[in-house]
Amino acid sequence: MATVVRCKTLDGQNVEFVDEIIASGAMKDVYMSPDKSYVVAFFKKENSFYQSRADFEAQKDRLKEIASAKWESIFSGVGGDYWKNLFCWPRGVLLYGERIGIVAPTYPKHFFLRAWFQEQRYARHQGEG
Fold first, then answer.
1. Signed CA dihedral, 67, 73, 76, 80: sign only
2. 12, 46, 105, 107: which has the fewest C-beta neighbours closer than 10 Å?
3. Domain total in the chain
4. φ, ψ dihedrals at 51, nearest 5°
């Protein structure tokens, strides 16, 4: 059984994630929260886009800006509720060991095509009478 890791974002939010990679891409390894309401994605060290401590700090500042001020300007403004249903925008930045990561909500169910596929299967079945 995988371990649940507990830590805090840079702005003090409590974060938990299951210490088991659920997805991995070119830039990040992704972990799921125990309640599956958000993910934690850590940038890979081997694909690091920062070569110095100054680059690392600049990247951390960019991520903090995205997860705070940019989030506020998009989602707290006019029409912000509309965008909340479309974007899984990062809400926090964290450091764990020597890795920097983001916290973002999981995709809502309407992002997945399961219902559409079931409707198509049902429609084909009805037409085969």
1. negative
2. 46
3. 1
4. -105, -10
CB of 33 closer than 8 Å to CB of 16: yes
Q: What is the CATH number of the domain that holds 19?
A: 3.30.200
Q: What is the pTM of this model?
A: 0.77
Query: Residue 66 has which token pair?
Result: 């995205």
- Residue 114, judged by CB atoms within 10 A of its CB (0-12, 13-18, 19+), counts as exposed
End-to-end CA distance of the chain: 48
Task: Compute the distance between CA of residue 13 and CA of residue 102 in angstroms, rounded to an integer.
Answer: 12
What range does the domain containing 121 cover? 4-127
Strand order in the sheet with 99-105: 21-24, 28-32, 38-43, 99-105, 92-96
How confident is the model over 29-65, as pLDDT tens digits?
A: 999 999 999 999 999 876 566 778 888 888 889 999 9
Q: For residues 42 and 57, is the Cβ–Cβ distance under 8 A?
A: no
